[in-house]
Prior knowledge:
Order of helices and strands: EEEHEHHEHHEH
Structural class: alpha/beta
Largest sheet: 4 strands, mixed
Helix content: 25-40%
Distance between the termini: 42 Å
Number of strands: 6
Amino acid sequence: xxxxxxxxxxxxFNPISILWKKIDGQPxxxxxxxxxxxxxxxxxxxxxxxxxxxxxxxxxxxxANKIVHFLYGEDIRFSLDILNWDLIKPFPKKVLVAExxxxxxxxxxxxxxxxxxxxxxxxxxxxxxxxxxxFPIIIPCHRAIxxxxxxxxxxxxxxxxxxxxxxxxxxxxxxxKVLAKNFYY
Length: 185
C-alpha cells in the first residue's frame, strides 16, 4: 500500500497543502491545494484525502520553502521532475507542460496556449485543464488569462491571481483588465 502524505505550509495567501507519496523510493507531489474564498487548503485536503498523514521529507520541505519564497515575489522556477503525472491524461498534461514554459513576467491566453499545443479551437478545453491543474504554483497557471484581458479563473481566487501577476510586473487597467505587453506563445 502506498501511503499519502501531507505537508501544510503557511504562506501570505493562507495555508497551502502539498500531497505527496513515494514512488520507487522517490517523493513525488500528487496534488497541491491552495486556500481560496470558499475553503482553506487544510479543509480541502481533509475532505478529499482524509487518509493523508501529516509528514514531510527533505525534498518536499525544500519545495515547500521554494513555494513560500515564490509567493513572496521571488523568481523561482520549479522542476517538473518532482510531480507525479500518473493520474494526468495526455491532453491536460500537454497543457500543463506548455503552461510551465511561460516565464515570470510573461502572459499567455487560453487561446494562445491552445494554438501552441496544436489545438487552435481548444481555448475552453485549455481553460478547463488549467482550472483543474493539480500542481498550481509549480505549474504557474496564474499566467494564463482570457483573450479579452480579463483574468479568467484561478484555484486560489482572483485576488491571489492578480497579486501574483502584479508581483511579476503585470499591470492592470482601471477596469481590472490585464495590460499585458509581454505575451508568450
